[in-house]
Amino acid sequence: MQAAYIARRFGVFLLIVWLAATLNFFLPKISGQDPVRTKLLQQAALGGAVQSGMEEMVKEYNTRFGLDRPLLAQYGSYLYDTAHLDFNYSIANYPRTVRELIIEALPWTVGLLATTTLLSFTIGTLLGALLAWPRSPRWLRTLMPPLWALHAIPFFLFGLILIYLFAFQVQWLPMFGGYSPGAVQGFTWRFVSDVAMHSILPALSIILVSVGGWALAMRGMMVTTMGEDYVVFAEAEGLRATTVFLRYCVRNAILPQTTALALALGQILSGAVLVEVIFGFPGIGALLFQAIQENDQFLIQGIVFTVIVALGLATLVLDIVYPWLDPRISYRKLS
Amino acid sequence: MSRAVLEVRDLRVSYAHPLGVVRAVDGVSFSLAPNERFGLAGESGSGKSTMALAILRMIHPPGHIDGGRVFLDGVELSALDREAMRRLRLAGIALVPQGSMNSLNPVMRIGQQIADALADHGEALSRPVLDARIADLLPTVGLRPDVASMYPHELSGGMKQRACIAIAICLRPRVIIADEPTSALDVVVQRQVMATLARVQRDLGAAVILVGHDMGLMAQFVDRLGIMYAGRLVEVAPIGAIVTAPRHPYTRALVASLPSLEHRGRLQGIPGLAPLLRDLPRGCAFHPRCPIAGERCRQETPALRSLGTDGTVACHAAEATP
Fold first, then answer.
1. Could B107 and A235 be called an inter-chain contact, meaning their C-beta atoms sit closer than 8 Å?
2. B32: part of which helix (H) or strand (E)?
3. Nearest chain A CA: its distance from B265 CA (Å)
4. A230 in reach of chain B (CB within 8 A)
5. Which of B97, B106, B107 sits opposite A233 (nearest CB)?
6. Is the minimum CB–CB distance between A148 and chain B shorter than 8 Å?
7. CB contact (8 A) between residue B116 and residue A326
8. Alpha carbon distance A99, A89 (integer Å)
9. Checking DSSP bridges between strand B312-313 and strand B305-306, what pairing results, if any?
10. Number of neighbouring beta carbons within 10 Å of residue A309
11. Which candidate in B49, B118, B285, B293 could, as Cys together with B123 as Cys, close a disulfide (CB 3.0–4.6 Å)?
């Protein structure tokens, strides 16, 4: 039964990825832009070169990228390549491939965003649960107004404020980039601590802004849960306060939070554009920003596809894990 | 009265409300003999369920226990600290909850919920001993032992209520408070669950407080019945006396409103509505709806008094002999 359920969920996942990949292919085509010509014109303008031979060059590049073939043939080989995670060359960074660029940027984004998302989820959820609990210390409640205020600020704006305070005014932390210029990359203590220093401000801007949201949602769920009959009965059973809090209140109130967490984890690749651009962080978001600026069609397609796969994977994992978290959701098929 | 298992003296509970203080329980006293089945009946909002929670000291803000003392086997509960009171719940006084549909934790197996109750009352048992104990417990409330491995949503309403009773009796309490235990069940299941409750009560030798509004159910189950109106006990008497010779006009109206097999005709209701607890009428709270109210009833709140028989009644107009 479970294997069939998982297989069915996986089928849905593949269907979503295929649909998204198809849209991803056709949307840029109907936009009517010619990426190769645009790029060459840009370079010609920069170099002040004469435009003789331009048509031949466009033709040559179109042949190389396979852009001169019929649309369906292009679609076929696009699907084939995509299935093999081959997203062609980056137009703007030729001869580098899109895959290389994404693989290079991926660890930065996953490292920063996965860490901060999990951290803010944990802190925020715990905080929200404690805020709703009548026996938690009173001083906790004073934390709430500032966190809610922070939650209302867009995090790129908050990031700019942090840069101004800590990188510009007191200069404790670096202002820009994922690592110091000229640093030798590798798993050395020197490089890792350099990266950590560079990550503090972007991480802080994401965590401080999103903790309030998690806390707010969890507090609301906790208040609802604490009014449930089973919590009243748990107290009448003379259970310890910690048992009632953790196993009866938090355990039930956290269910919608996990759904939100899975979606948030799926969105980390796309949600980070502004933070990465502001902090010059060499991740997927910054890469996407650059690709859009340079109309690098293949790079955009590659990144968007990666984002979709990440989202699909997150929902897939959630679907598989959820019946284990909430036994009321079962693997059985509704008849 | 020292032989009483449970004694409640002048218990008062109020809720803070923006429009004024709501006196949900206003000076209620009664006591429970060992093995006795005592009923508390009244309309919605008469303070029955609040009483049940107040005895367990589970009134939370905006509610507040204003006064009164509760004794279990001579031990005064209001003198206990929070931890001692927690240990006394379930072990001394157990609640069978209202709304059985939702009284069990939806994400935990039944066996685990029983294990939680045992563990938090200092019964840290090894896995096989625990499983054996749960397997012994479930059949006493008419459930198969394998229910232990099921989740609440896999059980019917009646089975859920049986599971709640199983938890309630797992530490052999002295007193069981059953707060409308069958209000969510159909009559057939209701009868079975009540029979189960009666059986475990006999086996345990526990006293039971049955809270509810179903006079028919009360008549079948309890030995003695207290009638509550607007947060006060207005009559307490053996169930036979209440049904055959009610003294208080409110009790009379309640009994008269029961449908009868012998006499056909329109059902009799009680005119008017229950009063707002934050804005009670002066004097006897029932006087606006009372057919025999006099001038004294509008001025002076009647106290519970004995009428020479087994019962007590809080009415100026009730005569000494029926």
1. no
2. strand B20-32
3. 40
4. yes
5. B97
6. no
7. no
8. 8
9. antiparallel
10. 20
11. B118
Which CA distances in Å does B304 have to B28, B225, B227, B234, B301? Answer: 10, 14, 12, 7, 10
Encoding tokens for residue B5?
Answer: 């298992």
Whole-number Å distance between alpha carbons of A236 and A146: 36
Cα nearest neighbour of B88 on chain A: A238
Four-residue CA torsion sign, A276, A202, A206, A161? negative
What are B109's two structure tokens? Answer: 């197996």
pLDDT at A130: 94
CA of B173, closest CA in chain A: separation in Å?
Answer: 11
Q: Do B31 and B8 contact (CB within 8 A), yes or no?
A: yes
Residue ranges in chain B whose pLDDT is less than 50: 1-2, 321-322
How many domains is chain A partitioned into structurally? 1
CA distance B94 to B118: 13
Higher pLDDT, A173 or B226: B226
Helix H, strand E, coil C: the string for A177-225 is CCCCCCCCCCCCHHHHHHHHHHHHHHHHHHHHHHHHHHHHHHHHHHHHH
Chain B contact for A325 (CB, 8 A cutoff)? yes
The residue that leads in pLDDT, A35 or A101, is A101
What band does A335 get if pLDDT is binned at 50, 70 and 90? very low
| Alpha-carbon span B208 to A232, nearest angstrom | 20
Residues in chain A with CB shorter than 8 Å from the CB of B120 are: 237-240, 243
Nearest residue on chain A to B164, judged by CA atoms? Answer: A233
Domain limits for position A260:
106-293
Contacts by residues B300-306 (CB-CB < 8 Å, ≥ 24 positions apart): B304/B29, B304/B233, B304/B234, B304/B236
On whether residue A230 sits in a domain, the answer given is yes
What is the distance between the alpha carbons of residues B215 and A127, in angstroms, rounded to a whole number? 48
Q: Which chain B residue lies closest to A251 (C-alpha atoms)?
A: B107
Position B141: which residue type? Answer: V
Q: What is the CATH number of the domain that holds A270?
A: 1.10.3720.10
State the DSSP code for A97: B
- CA B314 to chain A, closest CA, distance in angstroms equals 32
What is the average per-residue pLDDT within A187-204?
Answer: 85
Per DSSP, the residues of B67-128 read EEEEEETTEEGGGS-HHHHHHHHHHTEEEE-S-GGGSS-TTS-HHHHHHHHHHTTT----HH
- Min Cα–Cα distance to chain B from A225, Å: 11
Q: How far apart are the first and last CA of chain A?
A: 14
**Residue for token digits 């404790």?**
A172
Q: Is residue A179 part of a domain?
A: yes
How many pairs of residues across A and B have Cβ atoms under 8 Å apart?
81
Please return the burial class of B179, using the count of CB atoms within 10 Å of its CB with bins 0-12, 13-18 and 19+. buried
**d(Cα B182, Cα B210) in Å, to the nearest integer?**
10
Statement: residue A289 has pLDDT above 50: yes
Give B120 to chain A, closest Cα distance, Å.
5
Please indicate, yes or no, if residue A203 is contained in any of the structural domains: yes
| Interchain contact A245–B (C-beta under 8 A) | no
Which residues fall within 8 angstroms of residue A276, CB to CB, at 6 or more apart? A109, A202, A282, A283, A284, A285, A286, A289
Cβ of A295 under 8 Å from any chain B Cβ? no
